[in-house]
Amino acid sequence: MMKRALWQGLIAGTVGGVVMTLGEKAEQAFTKRPDSHVPALVLQRLTGIPERDGKQPLPVNWAMHFGQAALLGVLRSVMAQAGLRGPLASAQFTVVRLTNDQILENATGVAAPPQTWPRKELVIDVLHKTVYAFATGAVADALAARGGPGPGQRLAALRPGRHTGIGPLPRHKAHGR
């Protein structure tokens, strides 16, 4: 499962990153909001690369932007492989994506906590990360579905509906192919 989750997640996360970027560019054309250089600054601080004032190098910005998108896609793929699929799983993953950004940005001192941001900036950031999470989820779910239902889905299928007291799957049935 983990080998599939790795390659499928890298693909799903990269697609999600591309979709998010296209949405950001469309939004920026409409709102005239400038490019963010936060990803580059975070990567520079995490790796010790010297920082520049003002505009950051595009390759560094995109390395962090797309690298983070691809790597987090692996987590969403693990969710899908386990049977956590669909819009609810993508909504849960949106929180993970936002949390990951805030941990890295706040730990490096590049950004302040979101509750201190102007509301417009916060709404835009949440919107773009939601687009990323749902696009990544759609790809991860589609790739995982090729392997059949995940263990959680197989357990739920034993007694459809909302019930308590359903024990775990037998160990030999918990793992897929």
Written account of the structure:
By secondary structure, the chain is mostly helical. The chain is built from 7 helices and no strands. The protein is elongated and about 60 Å long. The model has no long low-confidence stretch (mean pLDDT 93).
In short:
The protein is mainly alpha-helical and 177 residues long.
Number of strands: 0
Helicity, as a percent range = over 70%
User: What fraction strand?
Assistant: under 5%
Distance between the termini: 8 Å
Q: Which structural class should the secondary elements be placed in?
A: mainly alpha
Main sheet: strands, sense, barrel: none
SSE order? HHHHHHH
Overall 3D shape? elongated
The parts where pLDDT drops under 50 for at least 5 residues are none
Please give the count of helices: 7
Mean of all residue-level pLDDT scores: 93
Radius of gyration: 19 Å
